[in-house]
Amino acid sequence: MDITSRQEIIVWLSNGHLSKKLRRFGTVIYVSFKMKYLIMYVNSDQLTEKITQISKLSFVKKVEISPRQDLKTDYHEDNAYEPTDIKQMEEN
């Protein structure tokens, strides 16, 4: 089984109910009807052509690449407090 790398993109819409039409471009993960945007995954090797195709649609306002992959997700620090350290601090 081959694992393909995917990129998350954010699509801003003029009408949230037209989000069903974007299913053919990738996997739609989340749709906000109130704020009129959706989050979807697209294969990384087809990213630029999918963005141009999506941005040409009449109901799409803006397409942007999600910064999620650039964010730090490892929150472990060398000098982080352990639960026992916090209890000792509360006792003092």
CATH level 1 name of one domain: Alpha Beta
User: What's the CATH topology name of one domain?
Assistant: Alpha-Beta Plaits
Spatial sequence of strands, sheet with the most strands: 2-3-1-4
Main β-sheet: number of strands, strand sense, barrel status?
Answer: 4 strands, antiparallel
Order of helices and strands: EEEHEH
Description:
The chain is an alpha+beta fold. The chain has a domain at 6-69: Alpha-Beta Plaits. Helices cover 20% and strands 29% of the residues. It contains 2 helices and 4 strands. It has helices at residues 47-55, 83-91, and strands spanning 6-13, 27-32, 37-43, 60-65. A 4-stranded antiparallel beta sheet has the order 2-3-1-4, covered by helices on one side. A hairpin with a 4-residue loop joins β2 and β3 (37-43). The mean pLDDT is 85.
Outline of this structure?
The protein is an alpha+beta fold. Helix content is 20%, strand content 29%. It has a domain of 64 residues: Peptidase S8 propeptide/proteinase inhibitor I9 (Alpha-Beta Plaits), CATH 3.30.70.
Keywords:
alpha+beta; Alpha-Beta Plaits; four-stranded antiparallel sheet; 4 strands
Element layout with pairings:
Elements: E1 6-13, E2 27-32, E3 37-43, H1 47-55, E4 60-65, H2 83-91
Antiparallel strand pairs: 1-3, 1-4, 2-3
